[in-house]
What does this fold into?
Amino acid sequence: MNQKKLAFSGVQPTGNLHLGNYLGALKKFVSLQNEMDCIYCVVDLHAITVFQKPSELHDNVLETTASFLATGLNPDKSIIFNQSSVSGHTELAWILNCVSRIGWLNRMTQFKDKAGSDKEKASVGLYIYPNLMAADILLYKATHVPVGDDQKQHLELSRDIAQKFNNDFNCKDFFPLPEPLISKSISRVMSLRDGTKKMSKSEESDYSRINLKDSADEINKKIKKAKSDSEPIPDDIKLLEKKPEALNLLTIYSELSKTDLKKIISEMSGKEYSFLKTKLAEALIEEIVPVSEEIKKLLSDKSHLKRILKKGSEKANVIAEENLKNIREKVGLI
Ligand code: TYM
It folds into this structure.
């Protein structure tokens, strides 16, 4: 069936957004605005699957909205809103809880990572989180989902849920199977302290990540301190696979300078990492500092941000209600 292209994606408002969010997701969100209809959501209901201080959550929703705008999302082109303001997300999530299988959720590696060693103490919300994510996407019948590589498994589950719904309720093609859009060149930005772990908001040391709100000074310090390697840059990409921190720095530089990784390596081979670090810090400052300044400016007018969210949620609600009407009908709800 020929479905109109529609992109949906979400970002959790759980504190500072970082370079991983930016290169893995936000930059793609921005470029997709010129290719298809786009809906971008600050997923506050996902955030509360782990306890959030109410006042911090409130501020973080606005800060994530400001980050969306500062990186180039345009509320006249894309629908920008916060998840809890469209109740269809939770209604569809309940219906999908009844379609999704416990065995499927048991395979989710992110739950295992986030719940830690004592799973009995994790919230039920954290366990069924991937079903809410499927609801976010399917509520709008989205066809494309731009995300970083860490969300791939959740996206596969969303496709399984969509497929099972279409089979169970005998409505082939009712939900499109959403296609993940994952960058080939930089699907996972790694921690600056440990190249085997992804860059994340939850890692304790702030030196592990570049935040979108960092100043030039902070970026310089973090890149100087970033782990690299004691030997000069090799000329073979295969040798770098055993040096994940060095490979991460080179990959970030390749992405920012829009130059193929192999070319960067051949240009820099034999040089010390301090050479790369100087170039990388410059490129990061050029890209991130304007974003950082724009975020701060936008945060000085919170009512403007709230108005954008309100308008976005009104538009999202119209689509959600129309789709929900059909979903309720398919399920047999009156
Ligand atoms: P979240 O809030 O953890 O991350 C937001 C986006 O940033 C990407 N990302 C990364 N990409 C590359 N390298 C990294 N180190 C890195 N860290 C984060 C994530 O892949 C994501 O695209 N469950 C989702 C939010 C969500 C969602 C949705 C996404 C809720 N509903 C529906 C898509 C569709 C999450 O926690 O993302």
User: Anything to note?
Assistant: Residues 8-12, 20-21, 24-25, 43, 46, 133, 136-137, 145, 147-148, 150-151, 154, 188-189, 198-200 surround tryptophanyl-5'AMP (CB under 6 Å). The chain has a mean pLDDT of 96.
